[in-house]
Amino acid sequence: MANSNSLRRSFDLDGMTVAELTALRDAAEAKRLEKLEDAKTAVIERARAEIEQLGLSFESVFPKVAQSPAGSSRRTRRDAGEPVPVKFRGPNGETWSGRGRMPKWLQALEAEGKSRADFAVK
Q: For 16-46, what is each residue's pLDDT tens digit?
């Protein structure tokens, strides 16, 4: 790691304007991210080669990494893809799970003064 004195010798930071410093910072961050991505790719490729030398597949050793989209760190819900139980049923058979935006049929009934609890499925 270079210390701040060597950076000051390479760039006259005190003589730069705010715009120049901002551009320098942005360029340095872009280069850092590029090098980080290159390093990650190299590590993955080395690991993939070693795993294949053992006669295994990368997907069998790292199943979650292999199936998740690149760069995604969000976890999926355990019940993802499963049907959600109905919590509210309207007078004409309309249904709502209680998730997401309230449906217009329930908004209209509440506007008429009715309670949401009256339509709760028991």
A: 999 999 999 999 999 999 999 999 999 989 9
What digits encode the pLDDT tens for the residues 53-102?
A: 999 988 888 877 655 555 556 778 787 888 889 999 999 999 999 988 99
Q: How far is CA 6 from CA 11, 19, 31, 68, 75, in A?
A: 9, 22, 19, 42, 43
Give the number of other Cβ atoms within 10 Å of residue 90's Cβ. 14
Residues 6+ apart with CB under 8 A from 15: none
Q: What is the pTM of this model?
A: 0.42
* Backbone conformation region of residue 113, classed left if phi is above 0, alpha if psi is from -120 to 50, else beta: left
Strand, helix or coil at 92?
Answer: coil
- How far apart CA 113 and CA 76 sit, in angstroms, is 38
Which residue type sits at 24? L
CB 88 within 8 A of CB 98: yes
